[in-house]
Design goal:
Blueprint (H helix, E strand, L loop, with lengths): L1 H38 L2 E2 L8 E2 L3 H8 L1 H22 L1 H11 L4 H10 L6 H12 L5 H8 L14 H6 L8 H11 L3 H9 L5 H11 L1 H16 L3 H6 L11 H10 L7 H29 L1
Antiparallel strand pairs: 1-2
């Protein structure tokens, strides 16, 4: 009897610890996904839910929309700009931090993490002042360097760049993650490389980067997912303007649901959300598959 009780407790106790997290994950993550797919099959009527069942008509309708196509083009541009402008900065900062041999590493780590504590709304307000064409410092610097006067956020060609550019300051938790991975590299490997004359750039390219490749891949996947879901920045900077030049897929979902001119088309917005969900899932699967084959 004691053995049975011991065996049952060993089998059930781990599940008791996991159960709360499992329930919350299923309820707050997977249930909304299933619910959104269900809503996407209706011409959803908020006054008398769920409305008329129309199968996949919402999906066929959004494919025909020019604003849906434009939103995807904008979102992919946001992804490209994010990778080019912001993705590599934390890696470079972490490498520099790892080369500091005194106690100032903690100081610089603190400096790099502080910008991540500033709320996004505050950051947007500050950068909207910077990009202001009338009195912003951006045009002051542009003129001092011999360039022209720009309208920045109101310029169709520059607005996406202006929204992503603030991320160039880097910092945040990514720096600490990369730094921890670099400091975890086996000291014997570094010593052997130094004896063989592998220093400077050679050390970075042949020792450091290969040993933190796993983290770079994970961060790249996360960056891709967040970039494809981008909503807050274009919403607060320009509300998708000018002329829809910064309307991302995420912002299009929001505007289709809550914009007064969209008449609260929750079925259509859910369909757009499900397309985005499956696209991100496919891209993530491709990334992980390619990484597994290359390793």
């Amino acid at each position: 009897m004691d053995k049975l009780k011991y065996f049952s407790s060993k089998r059930t106790m781990p599940w008791l610890f996991v159960l709360p997290g499992l329930i919350f994950t299923l309820f707050f993550r997977y249930y909304p996904i299933i619910r959104a797919f269900w809503i996407s099959l209706f011409d959803y009527d908020i006054a008398n839910p769920p409305g008329i069942f129309i199968w996949f008509k919402n999906y066929f309708n959004i494919i025909k929309l020019q604003e849906f196509k434009n939103a995807w083009i904008n979102t992919l541009w946001f992804l490209v700009l994010t990778v080019i402008i912001t993705f590599f900065i934390p890696i470079i900062q972490a490498i520099f931090l790892s080369e500091i041999k005194n106690n100032s590493t903690k100081l610089f780590s603190t400096i790099y993490i502080i910008p991540a504590l500033v709320p996004l709304s505050v950051n947007v307000i500050l950068w909207k002042w910077i990009w202001n064409p009338g009195y912003g410092i951006a045009n002051f610097i542009s003129k001092a360097l011999g360039f022209g006067h720009y309208t920045w956020l109101s310029d169709v060609d520059l607005t996406k760049f202006c929204i992503i550019f603030p991320g160039i300051i880097g910092g945040g938790a990514a720096v600490l993650l990369y730094l921890a991975a670099i400091l975890a590299i086996d000291k014997e490997i570094l010593e052997a490389a130094q004896i063989d004359g592998c220093t400077g750039w050679q050390k970075i390219f042949y020792i450091v980067l290969p040993n933190i490749k796993f983290l770079i891949v994970i961060q790249f996947v996360i960056t891709t997912i967040l970039s494809l879901q981008i909503l807050d920045q274009p919403l607060q900077f320009t509300y998708g303007g000018p002329a829809g030049a910064s309307t991302s897929v995420g912002l299009l979902i929001y505007k289709t649901s809550f914009d007064a001119f969209s008449q609260a088309r929750f079925g259509r917005s859910s369909a757009i959300g499900m397309v985005l969900f499956f696209f991100i899932a496919i891209v993530t699967l491709i990334y992980l598959t390619l990484d597994r084959k290359s390793s």
